[in-house]
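input
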Amino acid sequence: MDAGQNPAGYDAAVSLRDGGASAKESAAVVSSSMFGLSSQADTILCMAVAEIAKHEELRDPLAQKGIAKALVGVIQRSLVAGGADRTEGLTHAFRAIGNLCFDHDENRALVLESDGVVAIRNGIAALLEDPASQVRPDTALSHAAAAGVVLNLATGNDTAFEACTNTDLPGLIAQLYVEAKTEIENAMAVRTAVLFWKDTKLLDTLAQHGGVERLINALEEEVSDPDADGSGCEDCITLIRQICQEDHRLTAFRPAKIDQKLQALVTCTCLPVASIAATAYAVALADDVCLNTALSKRGLSVELKRATEWMRRPHERPEDWDIPSAGAIAVGNMARTAERSIEVLDDHDVLDALFAMVTSDKSGLQYAALGAIKNLAIPQANKEVLVGRGVMECVNIVLESPQGALQYLGVSLVRSLCMSKQAVPGVVSLGGPSLIPALLRLSASEEQAVRSESTRALGNLCRNAVDDVVIGQLSRGIPTIVTQLSSEHKILISEALLALVSLCGRGIPDVTAALEAAETRNATLQCLAQCSEQTLACNALTLIGALGVPTSKAELDEVDSALTSAAQMGPLVSEQCVKVRSVLGL
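output
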């Protein structure tokens, strides 16, 4: 319905907008019944409400009149209209709702009650899909209003925020940012985008449609001012950091110009910008295309030299840690293949820099450096080299850390090193008398990941240690290992079983006595009775056989009964039961 069909409604709207009344007087006049008379009148009313709602004290009376619901109706009707009417209706309805919802939960509730989130979502999608938007002069205002209404609706209101994230609105906000052509569009879109900084739809859209380059361009603009402190691009930094969290988004960093921009930004004097540039560059090397491009253009030695320089940057304050950590991350990513890992280890400066980070008292640096050292320890050829170069000093430091993440990396490194029989003697001797007690202590950690890796490290030691003294030390931990047989975590049970099997085969009296004292056979029988997987049951049966013939008839009968029951699990277990019976003479 146009103005000619409803002149009274149109005139009332114009009067409200242009009548010269104060905002308070206009707020008293406006009502829900004034909406829906014509598209032009709706647009003018939206313009008037947008101005009235700028006044904080007038949002309450507008809420009491249900104006927010009426504005959602304007969006719904505008979606049916076409051309300029639709764009104008959506633009000014967004402005009005955005101003009403600014720090006002009652108006937000009204929007939610009237399916306003879906209407807003559909309105933004319509603006983005409009082919005329590329040339329409009011597109900047429309897109800024679209981002602004979501920002004001969802900020500080969990219900509204969740309603937005249950749709693809965050992805549409990312699209608004990618397509922004003016400063006002860009500023509003990035402010709204960072509100959803953990949303996968937002981050994936930014990564897939050129958002990363725009964010990096914003960093370049920030540092063009020699006095910049990074505060002008905190939102961009947050979004880049989040995009870097998932490997599948790293394809966004493949363009050569992004590689070059990041390298240049690391050298700038603005620390926040230099830090995120270094982090993004280093993390992007986890993408094979990014890594191969860097190595083909500059070579491994140049990349290692750059990473070493970053690792040796001063890092007295926590805000200084990002660039050294990025250097370690870069090394870790370059060492992801065995062949290249061996080449990296040939560079003594790299390992010295990594060790220096671990021996510092700065947990952030320790974490990054240990991750790189773990990758360097993967090839069999590197394990002995690392032990000989002093890696156990690093291990002992982190095993005493109160932080679970560092403990995990430390025991995981020990587990990796102890996969090599040749490296185990050095691990034990250079690890010193505190190593095995530390592993036993951590195998009882409250953190499941630490407990699991510690048990696996002990298992590798049990299998590959040849020194009876070391075995004797390990035997003191048998009660701790046996308790893992009642764990809810299958990998813990499996590793404990394998470790105990290795100890059984040693024939050392102290070990045998410790196994008996810990009632290992009873614990294993209980574990077998609860096993639901054939592989795990077979490991338990192997331990029952390794423990030897029970000394009493009652125990022998108990084992016999357990074997009979276990054989029903399947052919694999049944076959293992036959072997155990043969070993025990049953």
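quick obs: DSSP finds 37 helices and no strands in the chain.
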